[in-house]
Design a protein that fits this description.
302 residues, alpha/beta, six-stranded mixed β-sheet, 8 helices
């Protein structure tokens, strides 16, 4: 039987007035999601920087001396064992004479944020990172502490320093040591974090004035205590993460150092030598990086 009446119109599955305002709103939301996805993926995009530096006062027996720097591991719920083992494997691939870590090996009290929301985050991250770093090979190893290594109190920072010593690290805490080749030496000094038990004068007191000097300090604000007469040839720092979310002309305003536009990241020529600010390995609080890839730095001194 044929019904001559008009067929009923089917209701649209989506009845939505998709006007210009809606288009902009949804496009913005999608853009935010895409940006978060991109920056989440880029947080583990490790880049090795190769830096060759020439010094007129480097002792001849140290020509070609190779240093690898890593910094700001920030071991945490987001910066786990698998990723950190990738770092160790990359570091082990290169020939080096000295490995240095310039602070923030753990994340300290910031982990309490994730422990509150995610019970799975309740781990002993200090023990985990020591287990990972014990796999480093084939060089002298030195470390200094950063603000997140010290912010949980003396008990935690002493435990971290002692565990690092057990796996072969020299932990410089406002002191120095020399490395010798034959009759020639260079000196490495290191400070505690500038926000805590930092003592620059004590760190440098046993370093001869005419020696070739390398300074390890987590925060690049250490440069405010260096004058030209000290001639510290190379200062290695971290702390800034290169901005982590590095938006030009904006991000440096949020970096907690005295001169963020100068010391955001990379090599800085000083009147007395060089400063290098490493972008770090991990992330702080949220697992995102943009225009500031995690970094392993390889120096060759000539």
């Amino acid at each position: 039987m044929i019904d001559g009446s008009e067929p009923k119109k089917r209701k649209a599955v989506f009845q939505h007035n998709f006007n210009r305002r809606s288009f902009i709103k949804h496009s913005f939301r999608l853009s935010i999601l895409a940006f978060l996805g991109f920056t989440f993926e880029r947080r583990n995009n490790i880049k090795t920087e190769f830096i060759r530096l020439n010094f007129s006062n480097l002792p001849p027996s140290f020509n070609g001396f190779r240093i690898v720097q890593i910094s700001d591991l920030h071991t945490s719920f987001w910066v786990g064992k698998r990723y950190l083992m990738r770092i160790v494997e990359e570091v082990n691939k290169v020939k080096k004479d000295l490995l240095v870590i310039t602070g923030d090996i753990i994340t300290g009290a910031v982990n309490d944020f994730w422990k509150h929301w995610m019970p799975i985050a309740k781990r002993d991250y200090l023990a985990m990172v020591i287990d990972v770093l014990s796999n480093l090979k084939d060089s002298d190893k030195m470390a200094v502490l950063g603000n997140h290594d010290q912010c949980d109190g003396v008990e935690t920072e002493l435990r971290l320093a002692n565990e690092l010593k057990k796996i072969g690290f020299f932990v410089l805490r406002n002191n120095s040591m020399s490395i010798s080749r034959g009759k020639e030496s260079i000196y490495i000094a290191g400070t505690d974090d500038i926000w805590f038990s930092y003592d620059f004068t004590k760190a440098m007191q046993d370093v001869p004035n005419n020696a070739f000097k390398i300074l390890l300090s987590h925060n690049p604000d250490v440069t405010t205590d260096i004058n030209n007469d000290m001639q510290i040839d190379l200062t290695l720092c971290g702390h800034t993460h290169g901005g982590q979310i590095n938006i030009p002309y904006l991000s440096h305003h949020f970096i907690p150092i005295n001169n963020p536009s100068k010391y955001l990241a990379g090599l800085i020529k000083e009147p007395y030598g060089y400063t290098y600010v490493n972008r770090g390995i991990g992330t702080l609080l949220f697992p995102f990086r943009f225009c500031a890839p995690p970094e392993i730095t390889y120096f060759m001194l000539n």
